[in-house]
């Protein structure tokens, strides 16, 4: 640990951040806590807030330390080619958290950086964090635009000072500025540069930007390990949440399988009942057909019987009438009206 700098003299750097989430700044939060504690800025401005992980870390330190500080987070919340396009819920989520915890001393300024610069007077800002569009031209422009706003206690932080992918150019701006101003560089989490632009800095900040060699490496390792502790804790919490959710899903799956089994049993019983009803229906259809055939057969037999019986009865009556009342007799005329004429015709 550096000779005159002991971060543990400022235990705020050991606190757990209240706001975490997707961010490439998480491992710098302990240093943000420490710097806020030693600098005690009257006005703090962050350019490029996005989800608000870094800005809310500064606000948390201000609140917990009961500092007389005004904080301002500047962003359009529209995104850029490096950060991507933001959706409106990103701003709404941050606004809800910020309003609930820091509205007493903090403001979110939804505008571009140049517009916001017009709201601050020269020499007003003690701590400026530049984390906007990361091209060389944009980072250089932001520095030159806001430098006149810095006080004699002024410190400017640059994020991504070690990132050299695609068209990132903050590293080049940082190399130019460290040749002109006292500075301290953290290499982890894409790099964080601490630039002392004021001439009346607190002793701890003067010591920080003058620390070199092994003491500087010890400071870097200390804050990196504190930052990794936060990230690992967040990742562990996320993993635990995923595990709980997986267990919930497994329980729901078991319940669904049990319900599916119950429904399959019901379906099986219904299918069996349907098969039974269909078989009974077929049996009734067959019975109806059998009855219809039997009825038709009965009708034919009855018709045949009636036909045969009528013929026999008619034949027998004819023979009987001739026996009882022979043709030409008075008996026949009495028993068979009209028979006399018929008999005569036959004679």
What is the topological layout?
Blueprint (H helix, E strand, L loop, with lengths): L28 H11 L3 E5 L5 H12 L5 E6 L12 H15 L3 E5 L2 H5 L7 E6 L5 H11 L3 E10 L10 H9 L4 E4 L5 E5 L6 H8 L2 H112 L5 H6 L3 H8 L1
Parallel strand pairs: 1-2, 1-4, 2-3, 4-5
Antiparallel strand pairs: 5-7, 6-7
Helix pairs in contact: 1-2
Q: Architecture of one domain, CATH level 2?
A: 3-Layer(aba) Sandwich
Average pLDDT figure: 89
Task: State the separation between the terminal residues, measured CA to CA.
Answer: 163 Å
> Total helix count?
10
Number of strands: 7
Structural class: alpha/beta
Rg from alpha-carbon coordinates: 52 Å
CATH H-tier superfamily of one domain: Vaccinia Virus protein VP39
* CATH fold group of one domain: Rossmann fold
Task: Kindly provide the name of the CATH class of one domain.
Answer: Alpha Beta
Give the neighbour order of strands across the main sheet.
3-2-1-4-5-7-6
Give a short account of the largest sheet.
7 strands, mixed
Beta-strand portion reads: 5-15%
Task: Please state the overall shape, judged from the principal axes of the Cα atoms.
Answer: rod-shaped
The low-confidence runs, each spanning 5 or more residues with pLDDT under 50, are none
Order of helices and strands: HEHEHEHEHEHEEHHHH
The proportion of residues forming helix, as a percent range, comes to 55-70%
Description of the molecule:
- The chain is of the alpha/beta class and 347 residues long.
- It has a domain of 203 residues: Rossmann fold, CATH 3.40.50.150.
- The chain contains 10 helices and 7 strands.
- β6 and β7 form a beta hairpin.
- α1 crosses α2.
- The model has no long low-confidence stretch (mean pLDDT 89).
